[in-house]
Amino acid sequence: QVLLVESGGGLMQAGDSLRLSCAASGLTFSNYAMGWFRQAPGKEREFVAAIGWNLEDSHYSNSFAHRVTVSRENTKNMVYLRMTNLKPEDAATYYCAASRTIGGLTSPYEENYDYWGQGTQVTVSS
Length: 126
Description:
Layout: E1 3-7, E2 10-13, E3 18-25, E4 33-39, E5 46-51, E6 58-60, E7 68-73, E8 78-83, E9 92-99, E10 115-116, E11 120-125
Parallel strand pairs: 2-11
Antiparallel strand pairs: 1-3, 3-8, 4-5, 4-9, 5-6, 7-8, 9-10, 9-11
């Protein structure tokens, strides 16, 4: 059984930095691209960032103006998302996802992801 478990969310202040973690199990982690998406209340889920199986392929949404960094540790089956200078509009549930559909390469498209976590909620006060 594949499990993706996000952590690190909570109540943040505008201007803070955030580090989310995602622990993966039940899959050969190093074969998968890992992505981060988020969904704010009343909005569609949107792509944030992704990192390929070999750590050299990373892909970021243009919406975040270099505030976001994605990283992974294949030896620990972990993927991370760091976001700086948080804004109230960053409040959302953040999801990690695993993709093998396109050979472990990164993708901004939800349909290319095979497994999803339950999400971790981030609230940002101004």
